[in-house]
Structures are given as C-alpha cells and as structure tokens.
Amino acid sequence: MWEKFQAFLLKKDIVFSMRRYGVDALGAMAQGLFCSLLIGTILKTLGQQLNLLALVTIGDYAAAMAGPAMALAIGYALKTPPLVLFSLAAVGYGANQAGGAGGPLAVFIVAIFAAELGKLVSKETKVDILVTPAVTILVGGFLSAWWAPGIGAAASSVGAIIKWATVQQPFIMGVIVSVVVGICLTLPISSAAICAALSLTGLAGGAAVAGCCAQMVGFAVMSFKENSWGGLVAQGLGTSMLQMGNIVKNPKIWIPAILTSAITGPIATCVFQLEMNGAAVNSGMGTCGLCGQIGIWTGWMADIEAGTKTAVTGMDWLGMILICFILPGALCWIFGKFCRALGWIQENDLKLE
C-alpha cells in the first residue's frame, strides 16, 4: 500500500524535501515578491519624485499583485500543472490579505499545501477543468481563512521582537542580525524572502542590509585575484551564493565575510543608525541589482513624505556608502589576506567555475 502511494507521489512529482520547499519554493517566492512589491515600490517612488502620476499608478498595480505573484512563483518552482498554477493566483491573494504584515510567510505555507493537493487531483478525473481549480482554490481559501491570520501574526511578532531588540541592544543585535541574514544570503535559501516574511525593517533591516553587503561585496573583492572583473560583477551585483560550492570544499573561506558582517552590522546600527524603511524584501537583497540601496533610498523618501524625516543628509549617504560598499570590500580583503597568510585559504579556493 505504502509503495503504491509513494509511486503515486512520484508520478505527481511531489517530493517532500528541504531543497524543494526550503530552497526552490522559498527562492521562487522571493522572485515573485521582487517582480511585484519590490519593483512596484521602486516605480512608485520614482513616479512621486518625478511627478509622474502614471508611474505611481503602475507601481501601485504591481505592488498590489504581491500575493498572486508569490503564489504563482511557488507553484512554478513546485512544477505544478497549468490548472493548478493559474489557480494559485487566487490562493496567493487570499493568503497575503489574511496574513496582514506577515502575508509573505502565510502565502509561502498556504500556497505549498494548495499546490501539492492540487497536483494530487490533477488529471485524475474527466472533468479536470472543474475539479483541479476547485480543489486548489478551496484548499487555499480554507487554509487562508484558518491559518493565515495566525501565521501572519506570528511572523509579525517575531519580526517586531527582532526590531525591538535591535533598538534596545543595537550593538549585540547588530552583530546577530547582520551575521545571520548575511549567512542566509550566501546559503542556497532566500534571505530576501525571510526578511519579507518577518517584515524586517527599521534598524534591524539596516543591519540585515549590512550583513548581505558584507557577503556579496566581501566575496567579490576578496576573490578578485581569482575571478577578475567578471567575478566582481557576478558576486557584487549578483549573489555570493556562487561561492557555495567552494565553501562546501573549504568552509574557512567564509570566515572573512562573516567577520566583516559582524563588524559592519553594529557600525550600521550604532554609528550611522542606518534604517531600511523601504519594502522589507530589500533588507535581504544586499547589493543584488542595488536593491538594498534602492530600498534604503525609497525608505528615506517615504519618511520625508510621512514627515518623520526632514531631509536626506550627508551623514545618511556616507553611512550607506561605507556600510554597503567600502567597508565590506576593505575589511573582507584584509581578513582574506590574513587567512591566506595562515594557509586557511589556498590558491584557487575562491575560483568560480
């Protein structure tokens, strides 16, 4: 009986694994969030600054589709059939709405259940055009009403605790948030999705940006000898995840970037009070497409519009440039030289294939 069920799951391409859900689905969700809320926020901010009402409207349209975009991305990563995939748009909208500030986490969990159950019934009846969408949407809608509010509240509470703790203990939490989020960015999971799910903004968001930049810019500069300009751009504006294969071979190459994040995090929180008040997803983006820096800037604009900030100061710009670019490159290069001198990092250990 169990063997038949396993064979049925295999036929439906339902794989219960950390990679399928914790890497593929989570990473895809972050892309869906990027293609809706994040790009929408950027367009809206540009429209406001350039006094282009049409751009503001388009940005609002894009941001409003965050829930459906995340759910569709998750369904795509889970390799759902078309009818399941298209039905997930309604599921994502419902879960995101019901989840409130913790909507992204609610969408992530609810969409996975709806997608996998939709795959179970897909093409199993002669009225597939009715059954598959109905099952997917009913399951997703029911779970959105039942689970999403609690999931959203829990995610918001965790995020609120992290943000509160960072304000109370900016040095300690600056180190912890920067190191942990930076590590998540380099691991094959989505730091952006994690930050979005926890609504990680404010001072904690600034520490998260610092940690991500330490990894991306740090690895880019430290490995310039091996990877030249191509590697600098690929890692500095792309992702430090490219080094994951090398880290598995020699975990010591990670030491310089982690030490750098442990330093830049508290500098961001204690010295410059660097805050991320743009979309929370930006907190986990680092220098990827300069999204972290665009998020900081959109946050400044939002604060000015709200009246909580009078103007963008030279100290603001100095803090962002130092934390996001100069210190990560300089510190990681220095720590890298030290590790090379100790023999912890050998020639070509940082070489990208």
Which characteristics define this entry?
about 350 residues, mainly alpha, 2 domains, 16 helices
Distance between the ends: 45 Å
Order of helices and strands: HHHHHHHHHHHHHHHH
Which radius of gyration do the C-alpha atoms yield?
21 Å
In total, the number of strands is 0
Task: Give the number of helices.
Answer: 16
Poorly predicted tracts of residues: none
**Total count of domains:** 2
Give the strand content: under 5%
Which overall shape is indicated by the principal axes computed on the Cα atoms? globular
Biggest β-sheet: count, sense, barrel? none
Q: Helix/strand-derived class?
A: mainly alpha
Mean pLDDT: 92
- Portion of residues in helices? over 70%
How would you describe this structure to a colleague?
With 353 residues, this protein is mainly alpha-helical. It has two domains: 2-152, no CATH class; 169-342, no CATH class. The chain is built from 16 helices and no strands. The chain has helices spanning 2-11, 18-50, 53-64, 66-77, 82-99, 103-121, 128-146, 148-168, 170-186, 191-197, 202-222, 224-238, 244-249, 255-271, 291-306, 314-342. Helix 2 packs across helix 15 (291-306) and helix 8 (148-168) packs across helix 11 (202-222). The longest helix has 33 residues, at 18-50. The model has no long low-confidence stretch (mean pLDDT 92).
